[in-house]
Specification:
- With about 160 residues, the protein is an alpha+beta fold.
- It is about 35% helix and about 30% strand.
- The chain contains three helices and six strands.
- It has a six-stranded antiparallel β-sheet with strand order 1-2-3-4-5-6, with helices on one face.
- A hairpin with a 6-residue loop joins strand 5 and strand 6 (about 115-125).
- The longest helix has about 35 residues, at about 5-40.
- The protein starts with a helix and ends in a 6-residue tail after the last helix.
């Protein structure tokens, strides 16, 4: 093929890339700006953090050319020697596509006196129902229901997610 025959396909490929980048940039700005502002922060770096009332809030914008970012809320904790048994909860919300999302609860359990935690995680729907409902996940969920419901409430109050009916 001569060089002249490659000009149009190359031009179209470059044009497609620029359009894709523009759509990506607009998506990141329009979709994630409200979540950052809800934390009292401006959209800037790829991650935005805030702490309030014993919880850490995070907005992680998508990596370049990806459309999946996440929001998270986690209990602040400090691992200490001889601490009592305790479980800490984290809620991660992955924003998918234009208006959908997936949610995961992570529980970090510390035995009394231990500085090593064991993490368990399971997917939940927007109503907080287990999606991977095994007996172990059900037990952990029930034991920590109050903390999970509280972190759901904080997520709704901060970002309006999950959109409770």
């Amino acid at each position: 093929m001569s060089i002249g025959k490659w000009k149009i396909p190359l031009f179209l490929l470059i044009l497609f890339f620029f359009v894709y980048c523009a759509v990506w940039s607009d998506n990141v700005t329009s979709r994630y700006e409200p979540f950052c502002k809800a934390l009292g922060k401006e959209v800037g770096a790829s991650r935005t953090f805030a702490e309030k009332d014993g919880y850490s809030y995070s907005v992680h914008k998508p990596s370049f050319l990806s459309f999946t970012g996440n929001l998270s809320i986690s209990e602040n904790f400090v691992v200490k020697e001889n601490q009592p048994a305790e479980t800490y909860v984290n809620l991660c919300i992955w924003l998918r596509g234009i208006s959908s999302y997936e949610m995961e609860v992570m529980l970090i359990e510390f035995e009394a006196g231990s500085t090593n935690g064991v993490a368990s995680q399971f997917m939940v729907d927007r109503h907080g129902n287990l999606l991977d409902d095994t007996s172990e996940n059900r037990r952990l969920y029930e034991e920590n229901r109050e903390k999970i419901e509280n972190i759901y409430r904080l997520s709704y109050e901060t970002w309006g997610i999950p959109e409770l009916e």
